[in-house]
Amino acid sequence: IAEVVAYLLRTGSVPFFRFGSGPDAKNSSQVIADLDQGGLGLPDRDYYLKTEEKSVEIRKQYVAHIQKMLELAGVSSGAAAQQAQAIMTIETELAQASLDRVARRDPEKLYHKKTLKELDDLGPGFAWAKFFRAVGAPRFQALNVDVPDFIQAMNRVVSSHGLEDLKAYLTWNLVRESAGVLSRPFQQESFNFFSKTLRGAKEMRVRWKRCVDFTDQQLPDALGRKFVETTLGAEGMRRTHEMVGEIEKAMAAD
Fold first, then answer.
1. N or C: which terminus of the chain has fewer CB atoms within 10 Å of its end residue's CB?
2. Selection from 254, 245, 16 nearest residue 135 by Cα
3. Alpha carbon distances (Å) from 140 to 33, 37, 119, 158, 234
4. Exposed/middle/buried for 120, CB within 10 Å: 0-12, 13-18, 19+?
């Protein structure tokens, strides 16, 4: 499972958790590894936990959406229905251990520097060393575990759910994150739930605009360089650098 999760992270999915690097919040001269909560298909933990009628209905529609996407991927209708329920159960368990948005505004609640041994103690059911090798991380001795309770909950999920349920969950992550580059039925079904049901969009953006958006998301620096060359030119870039320099001087004076 550790190697599969690493593969999915490298291809853009976020099963179980987020992993990357960032400045050490208590030592800005260092960049350290960072492990954060993740693994949810719905936008926020509260979608899984609120009990009012609207939230209950959204969860029902979400399960139906998962089933439809799995069927498009070739899973039989009966199996897709069972897998969708199992996936919802796993995501709900992860949501229950996730910090809400308000709590995440407190930086102290997101800083828990741990050694690799301490991480293994938090989540002994997951092969962390194998995962770090497979994901291509450089060697490190410590990392920030944003939400330790979440890692413990993830460990329980991996340890308590059957292999077929875990396979279904990982498959769903890959299908969900790949929908934008799959055939039109996948794109339409993804739009119907995530854009239409959740955000109230009326119709899908035309294909060329989605292609532009995708290029901007995947190649932002390359596209930005061309944009600057076309719109600013040498004189515009000179003036921009001069302006930034003056702003830095003003900040230094303050």
1. C
2. 16
3. 8, 20, 13, 24, 42
4. middle
Helix (H) or strand (E) holding 5: helix 2-10
183: its two tokens: 């055939």
The amino acid occupying position 231 is T
Block residue for tokens 């040498």: 234
Cα separation, 67 vs 193, whole angstroms: 12
For 130-163, write each residue's pLDDT tens digit.
999 999 999 999 999 999 999 999 999 999 999 9
Q: Give the separation between CA 159 and CA 164, rounded to whole angstroms.
A: 13
Is 112 strand, coil or helix? coil
pLDDT digits (tens, 9 = 90+) for 56-104: 999 999 999 999 999 999 999 999 999 999 999 999 999 999 999 999 9
Q: Is 55 exposed, middle or buried (0-12, 13-18, 19+ CB in 10 A)?
A: middle
Cα-to-chain-centroid distance, residue 12: 8
d(CA 129, CA 14): 18
